[in-house]
Amino acid sequence: MTRTRRSGQTAWHFSAASAPPPAPSPISRASPAERAVAARGKILVSACLMGHAVRYDGKAKPLRHASLDRWQAEGRLVTICPEMSAGMPVPRPPAEIAGGRSGGDVLSGEARVVEATGGDITEGFRQAAENALKLALETGCTHALLIDGSPSCGSRMIYDGGFSGRKHEGEGVAAALLRRNGIRVFADHEIEALAAEIDGS
Ligand code: SF4
């Protein structure tokens, strides 16, 4: 299931706010520069980083960076909100991984994801992670740039499950599953390191 966001529609695989990727050209007619871009793979990116208002509080958290603009112009970005892909609405209750655990613990069944309102949303977060991985593999993503702190997309720090604002080292469920499957995951504040790794810049 892949749907593309249009204004006013519920969707999870976004492309409308991004510049449309260049029209695909037959490989025989691709320029050396186009072939070089294709060979470098694509980058899965959190929708809220791309300016989509998909966070639990109905807001976006856009990231401005020249490398992001260039990757977008090159058609290398694949934008997803994992939580929306699993049917979660906007807005939605804040959620955290309980007990100071991490995304890997959720995948192995040793930890739960809970809402501030008391609901157990573990299965939704597992599905969100599966959707992100499926899209990444289908579209040839070798890397991911995800917003840190989220119980889905966090890759360095996440909240501790107490809804008190405390964070600890850990990763969200989607970030953990992507890493387990060989995708190189970077946090939003690591974009310079990502650029250095994939572009040698
Ligand atoms: S952090 Fe990830 S799951 Fe949360 S709103 Fe942004 S894209 Fe969606």
Labels describing this entry:
201 residues, alpha/beta, five-stranded mixed sheet, two-stranded antiparallel sheet, 7 helices, 9 strands, 16% strand, binds iron/sulfur cluster
Based on secondary structure, the structural category is alpha/beta
Total individual domains: 1
Could you give the order of strands across the largest sheet?
A: 1-3-2-6-9
Oligomer: single chain
Overall 3D geometry?
globular
Small molecules (ligands, ions, cofactors) in the structure:
iron/sulfur cluster
Distinct helical segment count: 7
Nearest-integer average pLDDT: 87
The string of secondary-structure elements, in order, is EHEHEHEHEHEEEHEH
Percent range for β-strand residues: 15-25%
- Strand element count: 9
Low-confidence stretches: 1-11, 16-28
From the alpha carbons, calculate the radius of gyration and give it in angstroms.
Answer: 17 Å
**Euclidean distance between termini CA atoms:** 35 Å
- The portion of residues assigned to helices is 25-40%
The biggest beta sheet reads: 5 strands, mixed
Region (Disordered): 1-31
Protein name: DUF523 domain-containing protein
InterPro entries: 2-thiour_desulf
Helix-strand layout with pairing:
Blueprint: E1 13-14, H1 32-39, E2 42-46, H2 66-73, E3 77-80, H3 82-85, E4 95-97, H4 103-107, E5 113-115, H5 122-139, E6 141-146, E7 157-159, E8 167-169, H6 173-180, E9 184-187, H7 191-199
Parallel strand pairs: 2-3, 2-6, 6-9
Antiparallel strand pairs: 1-3, 4-5, 7-8
Region (Disordered): 1-31
InterPro entries: 2-thiour_desulf
Protein name: DUF523 domain-containing protein
